[in-house]
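User: I'm putting together a teaching handout on how sequence relates to shape, and I'd like one worked example. Could you take D-inositol 3-phosphate glycosyltransferase from Streptomyces himalayensis subsp. aureolus, show the sequence you're using, and then write out its predicted structure as tokens right after it?

Assistant: Happy to. First the sequence, then the structure tokens directly below it.
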Amino acid sequence: MKAGAGTSQSRGARRTRATGPHEGHGNVESRTKIVLLLHNAYAIGGTVRTTLNLASALADHGHDVEIVSMLRHRESPRFAVDPRVALVPLVDTRADGPDVRRPEYAEPARDFLAADKRHDQYSRLNDLRVREYLSRCDADVVIGTRPGINVYLARFGPRRALRIAQEHLRHDAHSKKLRRVLARHYRGLDAVVTTTEADAAVYRARMPLPGVRVLAVPNIVPESSVPPSDGTAEVVAAAGRLVPGKRFDLLLEAFSTVAAKEPDWQLRIYGGGPERERLQGLIDELGLGGHATLMGARSPIEAEFAQASLVVSASDAESFGMTLVEAMRCGVPVVSTDCPLGPAEIIRDGIDGRLVPTGDPSALAEAILDLVWDPPARRAMGLAARDGAHRYDPAPIVARYELLFAELRADRVARAWQRARSRAAAWSRTCTRAARRRLAGLRSRPASARAWARAWAWARASAGGDWARAWARGVQDGTR
């Protein structure tokens, strides 16, 4: 589907779509129009789920919401899309679709960041469709959801709209090359939103962005529709992609200690990925064949968590930790490594779960056994977990976004001046360095009194921070 045609049609449908039970939130004509730019709304993934959750919650509050999917590889999305939310795919990658026959589809992307690990999935056709869509976009707010898309937004997004970058990965998870490019482009945005306060602090410290708000807004995790766990099943559950960073190997090592002392307890690991064969080999090696099982992927996962009494995460790092909140929604306490950056902001240690040192199987096994041996504490933590998970209800998260939109509109001029002052200061520093190099060069060779005077005037003005006067003087005497 072409961006232009698709956009026009979906907007028409969007404006006539009934608001249903939520129409009391406000006049349709005065709604805020919000566009969410997503890599592939038709795929399975944490960012897809959180974006769909946010879109639905924004629609609940009377906003006019559209999701623009950079790619489309199947007829229907794997996750349900709220019927009030318009979905606009830009490039159809299906083998029988018309887009794959276009010459631009065979060309690599030029505008999508080469440093973004998804670059090989993008084509020149993506570049052109994104530009076309954004050039016609009449949204009040446009939100990007991954680095390459955020740079699309910074470069081509409508200037009248608020342009916001969401970062679903940690700052330190990006390569140095990618961080350098992002620092250059993110300066043109209105805000950068991380999923944790800790990551927002890292961005503020390591990627100064004058005039850009950097703040944390956690992901929405809707309440589960399944009955909560009663905390009696002798089951420990874990979920996630089977990749090295999730450290299921460490979890299996810890559970071998648990199984030796409590052989009736079972470990169920949900998920798929490249580590499956290695993990199965480790299960056999540790003699856990009757105690630990790789269950495969499940979606939604809540029904499985509700059949467990504990959920465990052994990750080396988590940008947020959605599965932790999903477990808490089911009334299940979570034992997690205190890894950067999400778990410590989700789990209240000793109240609704346990935090243990990262990479320590003995500490992990000990925390699991403490709760295995103390059913009353386990059930009390489960109740506290359900209560604590309300922090991730849709309403408070949407309220934070609405407040952000209002504040960004209100201080837009002030932030523009902040950017201008920052650019002026940077130019002044550049002039000062140039003047010092000029003086150093003149000292190394004979020069006329007039040349020395020009250089000295330039150096004094530049060093004093009066970059405009220095520039004017340089132009006047021919040194610029």
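A couple of points you could highlight for students: Confidence is low (pLDDT under 50) at residues 1-29, 467-480. The chain has three domains: 3-216, 235-392, 421-477.
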